[in-house]
Amino acid sequence: MLLEVAPDKLDLSLSVIQELKMDGVRILYSTMSSEKEPVIYTRHNNVITTSFPELHSLGIDKGTILDGELIYSDSYNQGKPDFEKVMSRINVKDDRKVAILSKETPCMAVFFDILYWKGESVMHLPLLERKRLLDLALGDQESACKIKWSIGNGQELFNLAKEHSLEGIVLKNPESRYYNKRHEAWQKKIAYLTSQVYILGLRKGKFGWLLGRKENGRIRPAGVMEFGVSPDERKAFYQISKQIITEEDKNFIYIEPVVQCKIKYRNITSKGHFRIPVFENFIFNN
Known about the structure:
Layout: E1 2-5, E2 17-20, E3 25-30, E4 39-42, E5 65-71, E6 73-74, E7 80-81, H1 83-90, H2 95-104, E8 108-117, E9 120-121, H3 127-137, E10 144-146, E11 149-151, H4 154-163, E12 168-172, E13 182-190, E14 193-203, E15 209-215, E16 218-225, H5 231-241, E17 245-248, E18 252-255, E19 260-265, E20 278-283
Parallel strand pairs: 1-13, 8-10
Antiparallel strand pairs: 2-11, 2-12, 3-4, 3-5, 5-8, 6-7, 8-9, 12-13, 14-15, 14-18, 14-19, 15-16, 17-18, 19-20
């Protein structure tokens, strides 16, 4: 089941299941096949089993499908999940490289739900009952564990996520069945970071604004922003940008770095780019 975005003013004291949001790749882990090894699917239905041999022997009984997140926990970054490290392994197919990476950057699966148990669907059961079945299906181990959860502790958990720069929290109706789609019974509340940035250009074709951030007295490229800008704000900025164009190429129109805005974002990538930046508002200096 995919997550809806929680309303900004959501009451975090509600009696719902709360979990930390793991910053990784969503997976389904299936032992329904007659083959010896499990099958690991992404939410886009891509099979990634061969890329993660460290997850092949979790001791999960045949006839089981688990829902979870594939993460890499970086000990050099206070144990925080590293999304980029997981993504760097997704498409590696060479057996030798896969073997090396499974030792150098071993990933683990954090499971939070169970869809099939002993060959039968349990998606119709309430989430609390599925949590009990998950406890029976999986024991915590080096390469897999169950998500820790609580009820009625949302604000405290969200504050903890913000304090430690984690992605956010997930809120779930304890009586919800499992839907194979996005549903309001499961919602995510992201612990966004904010920043004041420069707009450096416009992308041709698909909408996007080039962003820049000031670092050591210089403005450095910081990725592309695609979300949060209203039609009226796009029009207003387009009229301004026509007057400050410096150059353009096949993909972008570049402008003078004089317009600033406030954004919210997940984190900064290893390349120094904002991850999933969202427009908040323009900044007008007197």
